[in-house]
Every structure is written in C-alpha cells, then in structure tokens.
Amino acid sequence: MALTEAISSREILSKTYTPGVATAALDIAENGKHVWDLTGRRNRVAIVSDGSAVLGLGNIGPAAALPVMEGKAALFKEFADIDAFPIVLATQETDAIIEIVKGIAPSFGGINLEDIAAPRCFEIEERLKRELEIPVFHDDQHGTAIVVLAALMNALKVARRSAACSTSRSDMPRIVISGAGAAGTAIARILLSQGFHTILVVDRKGIIGRYRDDLDCESKTFLAAVTNPENIIGGLADALQSADVFIGVSAPNLVTKAMVRSMAKNPIVFALANPDPEIMPDDARDAGAMIVASGRSDFPNQVNNLLAFPGIFRGALDAGAKKITEEMKIAAALSLAACVPEPCPEKILPDPLEKGVAMRVAEAVKKAV
Asked: 87, 83, 107: which is closest to 97 by C-alpha?
C-alpha cells in the first residue's frame, strides 16, 4: 500500500487525519455503502492462517506460517496490485477462527484463507461464506483446483482425449486423485462439475468408496457417494491400473515407475506434492508419461496457485462481488487454459511469472459475477 499524496504540509495533514477524516467518518456512519468509495477497503484482502497445514511442512504453527503469508501478500501486490495483509492466528479452534475473521472483516474487501488443515477448513470457509458479505476463498482448495482444471483441459487437448463436453462415459478419461484433503476434495468437485465422471480418490487407507466404513469426515463421505462409480477396492497401485490421468496432492514418493507403466497408453501425470512430488517428473517420463506437471519451478508445467488467486481476487474486488461462485471459478480456469492457445507436452500452462495472466483471469471473473 502506497500513499497517494505525500504528507508534506499542514493542509494535507488536516485532510489526511483530523479534522478532515471526520467528514468521511460521518458520511460512512450515515450510509455504510460509502465505505467502499471513501476508504481503501475495496482493494484490501486479509490472508488468514492458523499454521495448521503449511505447504508440505504440516502443523508448524502461526509464527512459522508468517513468512508464507508475507510472501503471498507480496504476490498479491506484484501481480494484481492488491493490498494484502498477513494475519496468523494463535488458535486452531474452528469457532474461534470464524469469530476472529468476522471481527476483522469490516477492514477488508475479501478474505483469503490459507494453510488451514482439513477437515476444519471446509466448515470455516462455508460458515464465513454464509455469514459475511465479502468474498471468502480458501486458496489451498479452490486455487489449486482451478489451476489443475486448466492444466487438465490443455493436457487432454495435447493427448487428443475426450474433454468434458463428451456425452459418452466410455470416452471420458479415468482420473485418479491421490489425497483427500482440502486440495484433493476441491479438485474432485470441480472436475465432477465439468462432467468428468470416472474419478477415484485415494487416501492413506486406500481408494475411497461406498464400501469404506472408516470415513471419519463429511468431505470423505461426500467423495464416497460421488466418485468410484464401480466401487473399486484397493490402494493407489490398484487405482492406477489403466488410468488415463494421475493427480497427486498428497505425499512424496508414492508412485513408482511400475505404477506409471500400468496406466493407460500415454498417460497424464500431475505429481503436485511439494517440495517433493509423488514421483519425480523425469521418472514419470521415463516410465511413459506423455505429459507431466509438478508443483516445482525447476521442471516444465508448474501447477502454481499464483496463476489463479491474484486474478480471482482482482476480478471479484473490481466487480464488487459478495461471493466467489462456482461460475467465477470455472471462468477463471477457462481463461487460464486459453492463455496457452497451442498447448504442447512441455507447456500446458502459462509461466507463473508471465505478465498479463492475472488481468486476463480478472476480466473473466468479472464477467462471471
């Protein structure tokens, strides 16, 4: 955040603070909507974390999470000119987090929830979306899902497989998602919304399905009801047999070359665990993967949430949106995919540092409001 005018005289000081600010304060007290025009609230986002699921580091607490939130604030400013403020909380209690965020919300135009562990993150986001009239967005869920959808659409173009517009279930790719936390659940949801029917989600105990009697949270119960239509039993290796697509948002070194070789011909492998993926990209290619993506910047096709969240918030703030809807998320994914008009195995997404991507996503989001 920068000053629009240097405070270099008593006249400017009187406008910047007392007595000048009293005019704005009284105006807003009379008509609360004027806060959007008379303050910087329209361009401010709170980045809120409890430090319970930071990157691939786990529950390292709020103080250790602070550098990550500060880094994200810098990205908001650099790529979307949004004033973002890192806020880490000394509690991991669901009700306490919700009350704190509701308490600080009048200062902000949007709330970016970050690095909050599942399944608490689902309830926190849903309740805040219901109780606040500003956009609330859990980036670990939806930012990841949006970028994955964009990457998958372009990967399927390259692989000449049927995209979601197909009406035949037999033409649809068989997709395996490793990880049933925040990101895995959101990816499954967005893919299902686009007509991808044959999805298997695998957690630590195996393939999620209706046969499982150990599903301990609502999100996994949901996944059991809407994925694994054939009710396949087994672990990750079983799920990957003849699969077209692997999407990993779980843990390092879970996938072997033999597992990739067991997949369908020319498979698509998104090994996104950070910093160490489920399988190293070079190993996946050696085993026959046609298109490989990871979360790393030292390999092609980096699936990076930076491609999504700045543009999504820029568009939502500019449009004065009260919610970030499913339509806005899909618009963001389609816009992001379109940033690579001629995808190839080495490029299914724009580079995270590519200028103009955030603004293209923002325009698409605005139109979808």
From this structure: 87
